[in-house]
Amino acid sequence: MQQMHRTAEMSQVLTLEEAIAPAKENYPSLKESQAFIEREQAMKGTSFDLGNTQIFTGKEEAGNDFPGVQTTIGVQQGNIDLLSGFSKSKFYKERVELGEKFYAVNEQQLIRNVMQAYDRINYNKAQLRFAEQLDSVYANFRTAAELRYDTGETGKLEFIAASSEYQQIQVLRQQAYDDIEIAKRALKQYLGIDQEIETVGQLYEPMDFLANLDSASAANNPLLQYAMQNAEVSKANIGVEKAQFLPKFNLTYGRQIVDDVSGFNTYQAGISIPLWFFPQKSRVKAAKADAMVAENQYLEQKAMTESRVSQLLKSLEKTQKTLNYYQEGALLLAEEQITTAELASKEGEIDYVNYITILNSAIRIKQNHIQFINQYNQQFIELQYQLGNL
Question: What's the pTM value of the predicted model, to 2 decimals?
Answer without folding.
Answer: 0.81
